[in-house]
Amino acid sequence: PFNFSAGPAMLPAEVMQQAQEEFRSWRNSGISVMEVSHRDPAFMQMAAQAEQDLRELMAIPANYQVLFMHGGGRGQFSAVPQNIAGPDDTVDYLNSGIWSDFAIREAGKYVGRVNVVGGTEQTSRGKAIQSPVSWKLSEKPAYFHYCPNETVDGIALHDIPEGISAPLVADLSSTILSEPLDVSRFGIIYAGAQKNIGPSGFAIAIIRDDLLGRAQGNTSTIMDYSVQARERSMYNTPNTFAWYLSGLVFTWLKGKGGVHTMGAINREKAALLYDYIDASDYYSNPVHPDFRSRMNVPFLLADDRQDGAFLQQAEKRGLVGLKGHRFVGGMRASIYNAMPLEGVKVLLDFMKDFEKTHA
Ligand code: PLP
User: Fold this and answer.
1) CATH 3.90.1150.10 in the chain, residues?
2) Looking at the chain, which residues constitute the CATH 3.40.640.10 domain(s)?
3) Catalytic sites, residue numbers
4) For 257-358, CATH number?
5) 190 partner at 20 to 30 Å CA-CA among 102, 126, 180, 314?
6) Closest residue to atom 15 of ligand 1, CA basis
7) 171 is in an annotated binding site
8) How many whole angstroms separate alpha carbon 223 and alpha carbon 81?
9) What is the spatial distance between Cα 136 and Cα 352, in angstroms, rounded to a whole number?
10) pLDDT in tens, 174-192
11) Which residue has the CA at smallest separation from atom 12 of ligand 1?
12) Could you tell me if the ipTM is greater than 0.90?
């Protein structure tokens, strides 16, 4: 089946096959990678290679640490304020959707004040992120946080905000590695792994060196970026299987031509879907065209009483995971790197057939 789930999401078929083949015996060891010590030289070599591959794929400058962390995306919602803000500091957050909102609430536990600089607005062409001109930045925030791709709302800020002097922090959970990105513009980038990288519960955090060593005293040690940087993400036992699988995904991605190639394919996949939805009277997408996500495409049927039939018939055609998030309803096609163009074309054919019989 083609799996359009938002996360945990479809992984590349070739990667899953390789993992299956290596499951019983990794590198001719006779045991699974899950049974190998993280201090074993073969594991350490694999782990270092995975980091190196990620650095290459994202062109991560040398003055950034790459950490393989626990606790998924939400773990980072608390790690960020604990690591680079004090209990009396103000921090700036853009609230562009559901995940920004969760991040804001979490940050409030650790800092003096969370200043929400702005958010989304309803325009005549759909839901849009407010213009940066109207953002109410605070004077000296410890950092500025935003979520470039809101997975649930299907709303994205494609341009990195300009003119912000505080370190930029971005939640890239649902867009990391989907297109080229200038890492040097950021203080911290983080991402839960379960969309474009690997298994859930795992997270990548990329931190500029000058932001290390600032953690609040009561930060839990496994979430302390400085400790994890010093220990090469092995302060405690890392999620070895997730690290291994992520490494396979990085190798796969390099073989596909990296983020430039992926970016072009992802644009094509998204354009196919949005163009069809916009031309149809039966399907609709509520987001302003400039702010549409290229990873998560939410859409509504003209009559939501037909949602159940849509999902059932889609599944019969091998199209799974299309149900929208429980907070917003409707449908959502998540089209991360592992979703081939072919999968989107099959979905489009199905949507056209369904429209013909149900409009
Ligand atoms: N941030 C974004 C943008 C997400 O899409 C998600 C989850 O889907 C999260 C954070 C939370 O990630 P996790 O469930 O790994 O904590």
Assistant:
1) 257-358
2) 13-255
3) 99, 171, 195
4) 3.90.1150.10
5) 126
6) 72
7) yes
8) 11
9) 44
10) 999 999 999 999 999 999 9
11) 73
12) yes
